[in-house]
Write a structure and sequence with these properties.
The protein has 18 helices and 18 strands. It has 484 residues and is of the alpha/beta class. It has 3 domains: 2-97, no CATH class; 133-379, Vaccinia Virus protein VP39 (Rossmann fold, 3-Layer(aba) Sandwich); 386-483, Arc Repressor Mutant, subunit A. Strand 16 and strand 17 form a beta hairpin. The radius of gyration is 26 Å and the shape is elongated.
Length: 484
């Protein structure tokens, strides 16, 4: 692995260099599983072009090109099963993909990407997925402050474990797929992680860590909501019906968290017909502060089509039967749709704060700092009495901007909107009083002083205005428009 890492590094086989080599058009085409534009951009025979063609575009290269890009390694990589050699040519049997964090270039080994250029995308039951949009979403979601022990639950090829190893004293990575565990260990060695830093364990869900506790758990579980019938793909199917796998993790996680520890989950959940998804999920949560954000809702037909296509069933003789069976099961279960989003749990011995909301709009990435700030705000507001709040000196967050809308020449705007430029980028409509209050929050005056001054300007009774507006001040703090 050190020799392979040196060869990849020497060739400049990094995310930034490959993106520059391919250019925007070919890079975007590859994200759609189309390789032709990339093949046209990589005909020069340089080591970087050879590695890009070999591993990303999955096309054979000549033996001499492979030897130049991977000096002294071709035979060894063939013996290890990463390459295969025929007369005059070398082809990839596994994917080695460049990956970039904020300050480091990494490489990730996984199974080859199925379905390139319209080829069949059926995969084996033990297929190990590479760097997916879900993996990068979870990486952007996960808090990055230093911790003692971290758990990557359902590690797959080990992307989250590689991230966690950068800020955790010890990482435990679990999976039921032995090929995935082998690849996680391979990726740890390839990226120079010291032996034992990532403790790889075979087993289902929390069984391999029974009785242990952690400061941080990150998981992208096999959350596909299905009747748990037909062929099972372990990277996406738990074998449990519905969203039971997510429910089980949410219910079990608090017992595995140290005080103040976080569990962060990328998940799907059922939206019941005639029911409230927020009430349903809040019933799973105990002993934890929780912030659940529903980012997307998919109707049953679109959801079934998405995952049947992912499984490579589209165009087969079995497609219609499986589609119909899945939809019928949704109807019997009373499932009106499927929600996708984030579940953030923080273990607390205090009265928990629960926040469940829909936010389908663009957010700043990585979103982890906003989640960390939410936890700090929960701590600030927990037990904050009205008397203490009135004496507080809040400050308008630096990124908040005010937008006004109205007819040209009008004396006052018809609408005032406060909009964050960072984090979740929330926006809220404000009336004259709220806009005036926020505009005066520079840390010099207390809440009581600002509201009293506004009441005087509007010729209103100060006590009545304070009673009316204090809940709004709490909302502005909870939503991150103001900071204490």
């Amino acid at each position: 692995m050190p020799a392979l890492r040196e060869a990849l590094d020497s060739a400049g086989y990094t995310y930034a260099r490959v993106a520059d080599l391919l250019g925007e058009t070919a890079h975007t085409a590859l994200s759609r599983n189309e390789t032709v534009p990339g093949l046209r951009r990589t005909r020069g025979g340089s080591p970087l072009e050879t590695l890009t063609r070999l591993f990303l575009l999955q096309t054979p290269v000549t033996v001499s090109e492979a030897e130049q890009a991977l000096p002294g390694l071709v035979d060894r990589l063939c013996n290890e099963g990463l390459l295969e050699q025929s007369i005059g040519e070398v082809a990839a049997r596994m994917d080695i993909r460049p990956y970039a964090t904020d300050d480091e270039d990494l490489w990730v080994v996984s199974d080859l990407t199925p379905g390139l250029d319209g080829t069949p995308n059926r995969v084996g039951a033990d297929h190990v997925l590479g760097i997916s949009s879900a993996a990068t979403s979870l990486a952007q979601l996960t808090l990055r402050h230093p911790v003692g022990r971290a758990l990557d639950l359902g590690t797959g090829c080990g992307v989250q474990a590689l991230h966690l190893a950068r800020h955790s004293d010890q990482v435990v990575a679990t999976d039921i797929n032995k090929r995935a565990l082998w690849m996680t260990e391979l990726n740890a060695r390839l990226n120079g992680i010291r032996p034992g830093h990532i403790d790889v364990r075979d087993g289902s869900f929390f069984e391999p860590v029974r009785g242990e506790t952690f400061d941080l758990i990150a998981t992208n579980p096999p959350f596909v909501i299905s009747p748990a019938t037909d062929e099972r793909l372990v990277y996406r199917d738990s074998g449990l019906p519905g969203d039971r796998v997510v429910e089980d993790i949410v219910r079990a996680a608090p017992a595995l968290l140290n005080e103040g520890g976080w569990c962060q989950i990328l998940a799907n959940w059922v939206i019941p017909a005639g029911g409230d998804w927020q009430e349903r999920l809040s019933g799973w949560i105990a002993d934890c502060d929780a912030w659940v954000v529903q980012r997307e809702v998919i109707d049953p037909a679109g959801y079934v089509e998405l995952w049947l296509k992912d499984a490579g069933v589209q165009g087969t003789a079995d497609y219609v039967r499986r589609y119909d069976t899945w939809l019928e099961w949704f109807e019997r279960q009373g499932i009106a749709g499927v929600g996708f989003g984030w579940i953030n749990l923080r273990r607390t011995d205090s009265t928990p704060t629960l926040r469940l909301e829909e936010w389908p709009y663009d957010v700043e990435q990585p979103i982890a700092p906003a989640i960390d700030a939410w936890g700090d705000t929960v701590d600030d507001l927990r037990g904050l009495t009205d008397a203490v709040l009135l004496s507080a000196h809040p400050v308008l967050r630096a990124d908040v901007q005010q937008e006004t809308f109205g007819a040209p020449g009008a004396e006052d705007p018809a609408t005032v909107v406060l909009r964050q430029q960072r984090g979740l980028r929330r926006a809220r409509q404000a009336d004259t009083v709220e806009a005036a209050f926020v505009g005066a929050c520079d840390g010099e005056l207390s809440v009581q002083q600002v509201l009293t001054a506004i009441a005087s300007l509007l010729e209103q009774e100060p006590a009545a205005l304070v009673a009316e507006r204090l809940p709004v001040v709490r909302e502005l703090l909870a939503d991150g428009f103001l900071e204490l």
